[in-house]
Amino acid sequence: LLPTLAAAGIDFRREAPPPGHTCGAQGTYAPGSAYEANLRRLGATLPSQANASSCKCSPGNNAGERPDRVIASAYCYWLPDGSSPDCGACITRAFREAERLCPYHRQAMVVVDGGACSVCFHDEQRMEEGMGVGLTGRKRSISATPISVI
Question: Which CDD domains does the record match to this protein (predicted)?
């Protein structure tokens, strides 16, 4: 299906999700924890990385070590021309909104500014455990319980 849609000329990087947010089911972190420090580190670096990239995005970044490793991605959805707003500033707002709307959640996805940009992050280890992948990377038993992937 994806190759067919790509052949039709649909550019997925420019298709913004609807504005809103989702707070994931990976639990919470404590204020002042290593997880929070790693999330703040990503929140400080992703905006400038996205501004510097040709895609106005910063996918698949990580900070920290297990069990507090955070994976985060940020995307802007407008065409990079002279009239476009600042992608990095939009991503900074998205991180702030994630903190406000999903306080201390280890997983969140937030879309801001009418769909202009989005940020998503999750706990690497808890995501793997939810998918049935252990620390060795080998498949464990698969649960029938659906998981939220954002």
Answer: Gnk2-like
Structurally, the chain folds into a number of domains equal to 1
Whether 36 is covered by a domain: the verdict is yes
Bond prior to 17 in cis (omega within 30° of 0): no
CATH number at residue 85: 3.30.430.20
User: 148 lies in a domain?
Assistant: no
Separation between Cα atoms, residue 64 and residue 38, nearest integer Å: 6
Q: Tell me which residue range forms the domain holding 78.
A: 30-130
d(CA 65, CA 62): 9
In sequence order, what are the beta bridge partners of 65?
none
Nearest to 34 by CA among 63, 1, 55, 6: 63
pLDDT in tens, 83-125: 556 899 999 999 999 999 999 999 999 999 888 899 999 987 6
Choose among 113, 116, 110, 147: nearest CA to 132: 147
Tens digit of pLDDT for each residue in 46-92? 999 998 888 888 888 999 998 899 999 999 986 555 555 689 999 99
**pTM of the prediction?**
0.70
How many whole angstroms separate alpha carbon 5 and alpha carbon 80? 23
